[in-house]
Amino acid sequence: MPTQRLVRIRQNFPKRALADVTAAVRATLEAADWTKKVKPGSRIAIGAGSRGIQNIDVIVKAAVDFWKSRDCQPFIIPVMGSHGAATAEGQADVLHHYGITEERMGAPVISSLDVVTIGTTPEGIEVSMDKQAFEADGVMLCSRVKWHTDFEGGLESGVHKMMAIGLGKWAGAKRYHTWALRLGMEKVIRSVGQVVLGSGKMLGGLAILEDAWHNTAEVHAIGAATIVPEEEKLLALTKSWKANIPAKEVDLLIVDEMGKTFSGAGMDTKVVNRSVEGPNVWKDVPVVRRLFVRELSNKSYGNAIGVGFADITTDRLVNAIDYNATWVNGLTSSTTQPGATPMHFATDRDCVEKIIETCGRGNPNDCSIVWIPNTMDIAECLVSENLLPEIEQNPEIEIISGPQEIDFDSAGNLIPAFEAVAH
After folding, report:
1. N or C, which end of the chain is more exposed by having fewer CB within 10 Å?
2. Is the sign of the CA dihedral 316, 343, 264, 19 positive or negative?
3. Where in the chain do CATH 3.40.50.11440 domains reside?
4. Does domain 21-240 have CATH number 3.30.300.130?
5. Predicted TM-score of the model (pTM)
6. Tens of pLDDT along 22-77?
């Protein structure tokens, strides 16, 4: 089937990478008033999550070393709701694969799903906290502040959400997502968060900001007393850095790889413009009519939550799914669609030829195409020739090479177009 030829382009987003991440973490913790109030000898629980945060091992290690320098006793806990198949072993394994181990960090990694009830919100939501965190003298969380894949608000993903959903472990995450169906996730996060803050256990957190290249751009030690207004400001800032695919409308978006390492929803829904409410619901995000995802990252450990947002996928992705891990994630978040299996076929060629006929063009050769490696790495991508008039109007976009035909190998699969990027 004839299709548009593809041109390789690069979006030249501003680069904001910190020169020395360890030094930046140390500096912000040293300067924070709330860290100066912690008594020597205190046991400090440092929470780390399951997202593919750049330099997360470096950041956690710097936090451990800081608390040691204050003669405290830091230890690390997984703070990730139902991820890692909602098992203590699975969550410890997720941290291990991010390089967060007792040997490398110089502090114990204690993984448990045990929780204690610490109160009830005005709406009647029972609030849970990781037992290890509750028994510590104080808790500090390391979390990236960014837009959330399921909702929009003044607080989305970040320290505050991790404090509510993550510290609640599987039991709390399940309960909060159930309430969110009626109240909305932002309201639940804020309400639950107030109870957690009222426990007196929260010291604060390291708010991590990444630029459009996913470099560590800023780190901020925000204290429990000011966590809400400070995180709201940081979220607005990082949203202003957000990268999009370089077209207002795309008939077919090809995504090489999905998985939890790229997004909690497998794919950043505010890149592919998908939601449990349907396609193309997010403002200021390009319209994507059809979505083809090819592979599941091996760093997702079989969790294919978000594959249900795709219109079509490959048999090999489906064969890589751990349905228990995927469905536990979906049921915990009270959303079933992201865990559903879309149409799937043996080869990439099969998928492209079948789905491009459904893009709403009389001639499939008129369909616009964008091909990206994953939803985190969209600076360099392939775009169809018919998008060039729009692309050429953007001074931040550089045309690297092309045009070229869409090439398949002898097995009928797309010839790799991008170098693998570790996350």
Report:
1. N
2. positive
3. 21-240
4. no
5. 0.83
6. 999 999 999 999 999 999 999 999 999 877 789 999 999 999 999 999 999 999 99
